[in-house]
Every structure is written in structure tokens, then in C-alpha cells.
Amino acid sequence: MIDTAIVGGSFAGLSAALQLCRASRSVVVIDDGRPRNRTSPAAHGIPGWDGVAPAEILARFRADLSAYPTARIVEGRVVAVKGGLDTFTLSTDAGQEVQARRIILAHGLRDRLPELPGLAEGWGRTVLHCPYCHGYEVKGRPLAVLASSAMAAHQAQILRADWSDDVTLLVNGAEGLDIAALEAAGIKIERRKPVSIAGEDTVQLRLADGPEAEFAALFLAPAVDLSGTPAETLGVGLADGPMGPFVRVGPMQQTDIAGVFAAGDLSSPMWNLNFAVGDGTRAGIGCHQSLLFPDFIQPLEKAAA
């Protein structure tokens, strides 16, 4: 029986582990090696690491954690979680079992990309989700936004305000868009259906019944979900975000299940590497204090039916 099992070894999970190990608590991080930003060549907006590849930053995180004798990383994916406070058992796809008094969920979310040939291949490089993370590198150049929900209008207006004077919204059959307001903001509207995209350094977009268009990048706000994840298996309370569900947490990242904490992208409707590190730090400290003082950090109340 260890003190804490952390599901997910990316920025939130490793930040949580570091806090617990500095308190000499036993920690197992279970990680499947597929962080959400694994296709991105560089992370931006992180003090000290601006422009550094996410994989390189994570390698540094792991190296830091390896200095602590109470930490262990298990390669694998959690496929089952049983038990409760002080008696959790986690099973991996490799047949391993980890018993822990506490759990920190840091496994992230699943992005559900629209069905468009070439889109998945460009994800993280020329197909992007966050102007704050990637907009500066393509500023002042032609940009496109692929609408999959009403959030596309919000995204297009942000890009048009401070990143480019040349922003095109691909309607793509989406509903609920205020086209007149978008046009008044100087955003171009493209109603023809996107057929496919290609390109290594730019986006070559093929449209139905029209010539090919080229953009420096294509932005979109993909739908996300938690289906089939440990968060769903445990049945932690969820809230609705603009792109999909996320885990409800309190001020110390506690969920509505005693002994279960959550951190990173799965516990917020807004995603950023800086937020993940901060959430993980809070979760690690909150988890440690719950081990010392079981009544100090209470789980959230269940959401009203």
C-alpha cells in the first residue's frame, strides 16, 4: 500500500508527484507515454521554457523526480479502479496492480477532431487550438478557423484582434454563428465545404467547388470527452465546459470522491501548460495534507440532481 497513485505522467501528474516526494511520501506515477501535446514541436508562454519541445520539458521533469527515492514510474494505462479511501486498487493494461491510499487523476482529455482528411496529421504543427500557445509564431499571416461549434466565432475574433488582419472562418455547416457580427469585425466568411488539408509548414486547404487556399495555420476548438478514462470509471462529478465535460474540483483540486484529486486539462475548461503545473502542485499538496489530516480537506458535495 503506497500513499498516492497518480494516473498520468505529464505536466500536472509529475508536478503533483514532486510535491509528495518532497514530503517523503511514496508515489507511483502510471503513465501511458501519450501526453496530449505530444505532436507539438514547441511549447510557448512558459517562463524559462518558451520554445522548448514539450517532450524535452517532460524529460527534465522526470529527471527531477528520479532524484527522490520514494517515486516510481510505471509504464502503462489504467484500465480499472476499485476500492475507496485508503484502499484503492488500480489495474493496468499490462496486468500490474497498484494499491494506494489516495489517487490523483492527471490523465488529460481526449480530443475529438472533425473528420477532415489531413487534419489529424497536422494536429499540433499547422492545425492548432490555442492562440496564446501558438499564435505569435504565425502572427501577421493568413489564418483560418474551422468551425465545429459556436466557439469558433470566439476563436476567430481573438485571432483577428491581435494576431492577424487576415482571418477566414470556415463555416463547415456549424450553427449558431453570428455571421454579421463576424463580418463586421473584419473576419472573412467561407461557406464552401472543406474537403481536405495538406502541407508540412503551411496549410493547403482544398474546398468544394473552388481553388485551393493557403494559410499559415488552421485553428479549431475540438470537442473533448472523458469516456473510458479512470475519471469516468470512478464516477467523479463533472461540469460542462464549452468544448465538453471536465472534472469538478475544489480549491485543493479535490473531487467529490473522498481521497481522489484531479489536476491538469481534465479538471479545467481552459488549458495551458502553466495551469497544469499549478494544478498539479495544488493537488500534490492537498493530497499530502489529506493524508496527515483526513478531515481537513473534504471532498466536494455531490452535484445536485
UniProtKB/TrEMBL annotation:
The keyword RNA-binding does not apply. SUPFAM superfamilies: FAD/NAD(P)-binding domain. Gene3D superfamilies: FAD/NAD(P)-binding domain. Coiled coil: none annotated. PANTHER family: THIOREDOXIN REDUCTASE 1-RELATED-RELATED. Keywords: Flavoprotein, Oxidoreductase. This is Thioredoxin reductase. GO terms for molecular function: oxidoreductase activity. The keyword Iron does not apply. It comes from the Bacteria. It comes from Pseudooceanicola lipolyticus. Residues 3-267 form the FAD/NAD(P)-binding domain.
